[in-house]
């Protein structure tokens, strides 16, 4: 077998190499599309795993990256600093919910969450308080590093690693009508006095099935955490940058978490970067003349200047372009397209928050390992659409520049593929 015939050495994420169809090779990205080597334009209905906000290769972000490479590659971020990171931190503090004052950089959503957990535990440790328990919500997803898996839902994704995962308290998901049970469970768990942090995805659990809960519940969770002396960590890795209709989802509950994690849309999706924002007392608990209180965490690529420049360009786009209007337009186009599925018996539930819509296909075998999702993915792919259902949950989270025509195509395909799946189930 010569090199050209041998299988690729690439090991892809969340991919069963024994089963998958041949990979599509993408040669270019543009607006809301991926363009493959045969010249086919594929509508990126999930913003390439939720990172692309304004559209692929926004010219201002690309220009900022090109400019930054005139002066920078990577710069060590301990003991040294640079203007892109400083300007970005100031910009983030201005845009984030009020009261967050410090910005710690890392390089992915998972590391932003790891940092948040370590900050929370460090905060209590340095104050001499014995609080180290984390409370999370059922069905949550916070990433795939060991700490992030520990605070996420347990299941087939992390079964082999469970011996390594630490124990956390879990709240039942606040289904409509059952919110009080969640709040009571939180009160109960906090009574132990050992809770360091309550960690939540605000308003929508993403990878856990695009499940929604009300801003009033988030506000109650924040109040209980605060009363019991626990920190609230908001994982806005998916929800940030306008996805739910506001810049950050926490705004809709009128709360400022003690720690906020952001990544994905931070650079408009162009480069990997993450930030964990904290309130001043968390920073102050670490600041000392005592070296043992140092926040011992870094990623080699923390605060990469080129990624920071991309993020600064993203902030400028938010300030200068009608991003909110684009989000409002996409939100109303999504509502309009979703309307016809609302009483459709093929779907057990449809829902929307901001630019995100989800349709639960009423079908047998809905678990993650069922073949519903791969079959749907194949059908969508044949129709020039990147849509990756979570089990039986078909969702769209497209870039903000998506057109009505592209959404028409996506929803027509959802309609058609729902029939195809049912006729062959
Ligand atoms: N937190 C949330 C809410 C996410 O949705 C994700 C990724 O989808 C992560 C954390 C992990 O982010 P990353 O894949 O960049 O590590």
UniProtKB/TrEMBL annotation:
Residues with the N6-(pyridoxal phosphate)lysine modification: 264
Cofactor list: pyridoxal 5'-phosphate
Residue numbers marked as site, Participates in the substrate recognition with KAPA and in a stacking interaction with the adenine ring of SAM: 14
Location relative to the cell: Cytoplasm
Molecular function per GO: adenosylmethionine-8-amino-7-oxononanoate transaminase activity
Keyword Hydrolase tagged: no
The reaction(s) this protein catalyses: (8S)-8-amino-7-oxononanoate + S-adenosyl-L-methionine = S-adenosyl-4-methylsulfanyl-2-oxobutanoate + (7R,8S)-7,8-diammoniononanoate
Positions annotated to bind substrate: 49, 141, 264, 298, 388
Superkingdom, natural source: Bacteria
Entry EC number(s): 2.6.1.62
Protein keywords: Aminotransferase, Biotin biosynthesis, Cytoplasm, Pyridoxal phosphate, S-adenosyl-L-methionine, Transferase
Sequence similarity: Belongs to the class-III pyridoxal-phosphate-dependent aminotransferase family. BioA subfamily.
Function text: Catalyzes the transfer of the alpha-amino group from S-adenosyl-L-methionine (SAM) to 7-keto-8-aminopelargonic acid (KAPA) to form 7,8-diaminopelargonic acid (DAPA). It is the only aminotransferase known to utilize SAM as an amino donor.
Full protein name: Adenosylmethionine-8-amino-7-oxononanoate aminotransferase
Species of provenance: Ciceribacter thiooxidans
